[in-house]
Amino acid sequence: MIDAFASLLNQGFAYIVPMIVLLGLLIFVHELGHFLAAKYFKVRVEVFSLGFGRKILQFKKGDTQYCISILPLGGYVKMFGDEPGKEIPTQEKEYSFLHKPVGQRIVIALAGPVMNLFFAGLLFHTIAVLGEKAPAPIVGELASNSQAHELGFRNYDVIRSVNDHKIETWTQFENLVETSAGQSLSVHILRQGQPETLEITPIQVKNDNLFSTAETIGRIKGLNSKIHLPFIGVAPGGPFALAGFKNGDQILSINDQNIEWFKDIRPTLLEALYNEGGAATVKVKRYSDFRKGEVEKEFSIHLDGRDFTSGELGIFIPEMVIGEVQKDSPAEKIGLQRLDTIVSINGHEIHSFDDILKNVSGYEPDGAPLKFEIHRGDQRQTFDIVPKMNSLEGEYGEIENRFTVGVTPVLFSIPQSFTWKSPGFFHATGRALEQSWHWTKLTLLSFLRIVQNKVSSKNLSGFISIGQVAHKSWQIGAVPFLKMMAVISINLFILNLLPIPILDGGHLLLFTLEAIKGAPLSLRKIEVAQQIGFLIIIFLMAFALFNDFSRIFGS
Question: Looking at per-residue confidence, does 311 or 288 come out higher?
Fold first, then answer.
């Protein structure tokens, strides 16, 4: 606990600059919306503040005091005449907020959130012009018994178009498949440089994505864009094992030729062994903790081609190799260890991590223990394990109850990516509108699913999590930081429209009731509403902060 707290303090300093830039810009944009709308309707603005509390920087221009305050967790625009019940001289009423027509007050209250939405669109437009990493429309590594393979897809096919619609990214192709259940699609591909056409019909399946409104979607089972990174599993007694390689090693280079993917290891090594003097130097990275990315050591192994005369390397994709054994899990209690290779479960041979999941999740309560056969070094051992029912967070934040044993694999696969830039202003504008709508819809559905208790409320995050994300995206580069800022700006747009008194949405609700009633609500009712709203906001902030600390100290 003490170490975690000390680490938090040390890291906090590195988060300050990105967080100030992020929150400062988003708060400024939001308050600027209120400010400009108030000025347009000739409302006198007395204070424009970034932050709350004691003012640390300030200057006055015209009627307005511009300042930066000590607590950087928000901001405000103080308008003349915005206090209900306060007497305003007759000659000053034309500058008073509460003496403006209710329609103008609604526009002023709405201007802040709308400015956040506009700013997000501007950021997405900038990102489209600068270019961002996107998954390339290239088929990943398929299982030979998958539906995708049966339909004719092969590893590394390049998707060019579908029904004459040009495909630029894997996401576009995936979305098209999802919206085409039961429809015939002509998929034009490049395979090893040669054009081919596949006729496919996506099957209709239940949509498990809680952040989608569609109940069913189209799916080609087994079709994916992921390709394995060059982490290896090592077969006992094979050439790689004898040379000193171990499960979970990452191959960095062979004779100074960088290795990016697992599929590159074999051809590069064989070429080096047989065409470059019969020897190869393999640079390797070995990890002490895969989850944290902690490296044990980086070193080189020298290989002699005479040990590889059969062409067999004795390595495999490490889906069945244990990368982490969770604390107090059935696997830990029974003695499974990191880097063990799971060979079989109840006599069923294991070829992938999916095989492990199917065997474990299908366990019958009160049934006999599962018999795990594993390789540890060059020894085979057998363990009897009784899986434990756990509540887990699924891919979309939903809660799933299923049996687990507490192991995760050494399995690292990602889509091939490229930098996707818009060719012109209007194309970038289209992408900005598309992204703005996508993230607005996703944010609304996220809140709805939390209210429905379909997604854990633990996903609510506070300013500590925002600082962590800001820091990480800042380190990666300008485009990830801008995208993260755009997404948070849309979140602020939605949050501020919630009908909670003291938020803009609460003011909009009160003004709308006034418009319907034809007269303002009583001062007492407004005060009670604001007190309730204040308590709700304090509770939500405290809960989000609790989630932040739970994530930090829980990990």
Answer: 288
